[in-house]
């Protein structure tokens, strides 16, 4: 049995943007194939909502190719890990062979030719690679996710602490679900977005002292920002066993952040995604349990340097 209805492939389907994108598309009556790295409780929940689940690895051409038949439009998202360019080439070839007509690519705001971060530079190269296919392409370049705050939050007694290397520079944190609204909208109507690069921001540009104050208002406890050096930050991540590729990336984007690369605001979430972006106070207030303990990447007060 064949159908003329579109079939959307969402990679990284259990992640911060992918999961919500799958659910938005399903809620709108679309067919969705969710590409996941492993079958687990999260992928089972997606299947229960009506998604078709495909298990595979973006670095494995066979599994990526097997997920492509019938797909019309796709969302490509790769974690900050080695292998982005290989994964992009595999995805592009498999999608082209299957006749996929458009792709929404998750890049990052620091992606550029001269980036010192290996991951950021590879995102820029991945954008150029996808632009050379016959598919319609749209590249999303978000600033730092609001979900970062969960990962780096310290709960120390009755207060919260953010130890981060961002000095007094600013950005407008963006929530993963708000990005999903843009992803879903571009997947549904890709024509006007072909070869576009969209920087995505939350509603209000803030420094981390202001972010901490907003968190404090939502949580009802004191929250403070304690600036640290980039060297202290990367030493702490290394001591926690973080992947060296990720440490290299985060160290260099911290410098970019201080230099204003992550700053700015715009109305693209509302104009393209159709909804007003979520502010920090509302984001934190919606998930108090996430801030009841320290996050997985919380930087301790004493760091070996």
Radius of gyration: 19 Å
Portion in strands: 15-25%
Number of helices: 12
User: Low-confidence stretches at least 5 residues in length (pLDDT < 50)?
Assistant: none
Helices and strands: which structural class? alpha/beta
Shape, per Cα inertia axes: globular
- What does the largest sheet look like? 7 strands, parallel
Element string (H = helix, E = strand): EHEHEHEHEHEHEEHEHEHHHH
Strand order of the largest sheet: 3-2-1-4-5-6-9
Average pLDDT level: 96
Total strands: the figure is 10
Q: Could you estimate the helical fraction of the residues in percent?
A: 25-40%
Our measurement of the CA-to-CA distance between the termini, rounded to an integer number of angstroms, reads 62 Å
What would you note in describing this structure?
There is one protein chain. With 305 residues, the chain is an alpha/beta fold. Helix content is 40%, strand content 17%. The chain has helices at 18-27, 41-49, 61-66, 84-98, 118-131, 148-152, 176-188, 208-219, 230-239, 244-258, 268-273, 280-285, and strands spanning 7-11, 31-36, 52-55, 73-76, 102-106, 136-142, 153-156, 159-164, 196-200, 223-227. The strands form 2 sheets. The chain has a 7-stranded parallel sheet, sandwiched between helices. Helix 1 (18-27) crosses helix 7 (176-188) and helix 9 (230-239) packs antiparallel against helix 10. It contains 12 helices and 10 strands. It starts with 6 loop residues before the first strand and ends in a 20-residue tail after the last helix. The mean pLDDT is 96.
